[in-house]
Design a protein that fits this description.
With about 270 residues, this protein is of the alpha/beta class. The radius of gyration is 18 Å and the shape is globular.
Length: about 270
């Protein structure tokens, strides 16, 4: 695992409570994760998540993943946990607008200390968000605590790829993304197993390079004005952010960062 100091929950809250979070949603849509709907459907199918189940989305942002699960997988009840007030308020409003408030609730809390009961969920869900959590071992322990015996932990996340990151590459990437650390696939597998879970799936989705290409193309070819508006028409900031995204693009194509999918069963 690669980590840096000086980045933690307050910095993540600043991102998603401000313009930067709005910029990510502009580029990636409400489902702020690589692959959007296709990625969600793939993960839910591989994890066997379906009708009548109840789940918890840790680091749920505005709850797009939960709305997907209720509308397209027939999930009966979702509880989302996120520590940023702005996205929780936005999520509640969006659920109300879609008539889903009876099926989806939000808790404003640190995902590593959710306050939810032991073993109360059929599954725990996450999509490209656990990279923002400083103590990933504690987060996995929390997921294992709140899922029932025989229940499923299913998530995707940004991870260190097989080619590995140098110390300087990791510092630059983590600083730009406001990730306190980035785990690798083996690290997540070990954390799941240490918390009594049988790992069924742990591997690179192969999506990252083509999607970061897409995001950069959209910003260059279609969304330039919209992005500038979000950041106060600061062209210098726009240029600096584009440079960091191009650096991230190079890392993805070199196999140094990836999106990975995990499915584990609490045994």
């Amino acid at each position: 695992m690669k980590a840096i100091e000086g980045v933690g929950l307050p910095q993540v809250q600043s991102v998603y409570g401000g313009a930067e979070g709005d910029l990510w949603e502009l580029v990636m849509g409400e489902q702020i994760h690589i692959g959007g709907f296709k990625s969600s459907m793939d993960l839910a199918t591989r994890a066997g998540i379906g009708a009548g189940m109840s789940g918890v989305d840790l680091c749920c942002c505005s709850g797009a993943g939960m709305r997907f699960l209720v509308k397209f997988r027939g999930v009966a009840r979702m509880t989302g946990v996120d520590a940023t007030e702005k996205v929780v308020a936005r999520g509640r409003a969006r659920c109300e607008a879609l008539g889903l408030a009876d099926h989806i609730s939000f808790r404003l809390a640190d995902a590593t200390r959710s306050g939810l009961p032991d073993g109360g969920a059929d599954f725990v869900w996450g999509e490209d968000a656990w990279c923002y959590v400083e103590d990933k071992d504690r987060l996995i322990a929390e997921a294992a605590r709140i899922v029932r015996m025989g229940g499923t932990i299913a998530f995707t996340d940004w991870v260190e790829g097989p080619a590995g990151l140098s110390a300087e590459e990791a510092r630059r990437f983590l600083t730009f993304m406001k990730f306190p650390s980035v785990m690798d696939i083996a690290g997540y597998r070990a954390a799941l197993e240490a918390n009594g879970c049988e790992v069924r799936i742990a591997g690179d989705t192969g999506r990252f390079p083509q999607y970061v290409d897409l995001y950069l193309a959209m910003l260059d070819m279609q969304l330039t004005y919209d992005a500038l508006r979000i950041i106060g028409f600061d062209a210098d900031l726009m240029g600096a952010m584009a440079g960091e995204m191009q650096f991230m693009q190079a890392l993805a194509h070199a196999g140094k960062i990836a999106q990975a999918a995990f499915v584990a069963v609490r045994s």
